[in-house]
Amino acid sequence: MIFTTAMIQAKLCKSISLKDDSTEVKFIQIIAKRFANRHTIDLLSHIHLITQVGHTITEGFHFRPMSGTLWVEKLQSSKKFDPDDRDNIFGV
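^ that's the sequence the OP posted. Answer follows.
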């Protein structure tokens, strides 16, 4: 799946201004492609609005999902993600 800069620009909140060739846009493309290739999840289709973008790929980005319920269901159905349980920091 190809994630164009126009697709990403359309998801950015108005307070975020990124050039099409910025490293931050490339990071979002890499992360979206990774979700597609590893988990068969079309990440961008679940994003309503990108609200924050990190300066490195490890910082990632924050977003508001189209539907929080559908996003959680998609992650759980992939069987590759566990719910974030902060009461159990060891994952056991």
